[in-house]
UniProtKB/TrEMBL annotation:
InterPro entries: SpoVT-AbrB_dom (IPR007159), SpoVT-AbrB_sf (IPR037914)
Molecular-function GO terms, alphabetical: DNA binding
Domain SpoVT-AbrB: 4-46
Recorded coiled-coil stretches: none
Name this polypeptide is given: AbrB family transcriptional regulator
Annotated Gene3D superfamilies: 2.10.260.10
Pfam families cross-referenced by the UniProt entry: MazE_antitoxin
Length: 74
């Protein structure tokens, strides 16, 4: 489900990320990406075990670089 909120920048230039959103990713580090006319925000996941079974792959390729490409495409 997609949620949209509007946040104002405070006097120190900060934008607050809602607590329930931060809790969902269990991290206090986020990656900000500037793309043309928008900013994208991604949680920095340091514990990769949270990603187990998060992506379905029909079969594992013998080439791990190919697996990496498939994962990034998803």
């Amino acid at each position: 489900m997609e949620r949209v909120v509007i946040k104002r920048v405070d006097s120190q230039g900060r934008i607050i990320i809602p607590k329930e959103w931060r809790d969902k990713f269990n991290t206090d580090e986020f990656i900000l990406v500037l793309k043309d006319d928008r900013i994208e925000l991604y949680p920095r996941v340091s514990n990769l075990t949270k990603l187990i079974d998060s992506i379905n792959v029909e079969e594992l390729p013998s080439d791990w670089h190919e697996l990496k490409r498939k994962v990034y495409r998803l």
